[in-house]
Amino acid sequence: MTTTLPYTDDEAANALLADDPLALVIGLVLYQQVPTEKAFAGPYALQQRLGHLDPGKIAAMDPDALSEVFAQKPAIHRFPASMAKRVHALCGYVSDTLAGDVTSVWTEADDAKALLKALTNMPGFGEYKARVFIGVLAHRLGVQPEGWEELAPDWPSIADIETRSDLTELKERKAAWKASQKS
Description:
With 183 residues, this protein is mainly α. The protein has helices spanning 11-19, 21-30, 36-50, 55-60, 63-71, 80-96, 104-107, 112-120, 127-141, 148-151, 164-182. The chain is globular, with a radius of gyration of 16 Å. The N and C termini lie far apart (39 Å). The model has no long low-confidence stretch (mean pLDDT 94).
């Protein structure tokens, strides 16, 4: 449905997010305590450093070696060691539980509630990230299981981003939404 997901300043990184479902899922795992652009540039940086984004190969890596890859300058994440562990666990799950096919999480879900459950079973995903991903799947990738509207975020999220300029606007809307939640 889309040829790019404009979550970074790098067109190659954005294209990878749209082309490689594992890259997008890894980006979501990294999407915490760093700016959106940094989190979603992470899968591209990881692919460049490893030469692949093969979940089986990443899962087979020594966790300390993966942590070193994450820590290379510039670091892939603000917390390279802990995020490397999460990505390692995610890739192990994708490799072992999903037979290497992360798309089976959404292609085999009977409805949005089953999708939410399947997403929250993946390492690095809680309900918040799972709901954001349901929004991305529905709005950007055309994956709309029954009931998705009820579970997609009802707050400003990356699911709303269609263009690079939307990212700046999203940050402003999100700040306003957070401020309104405090009052």
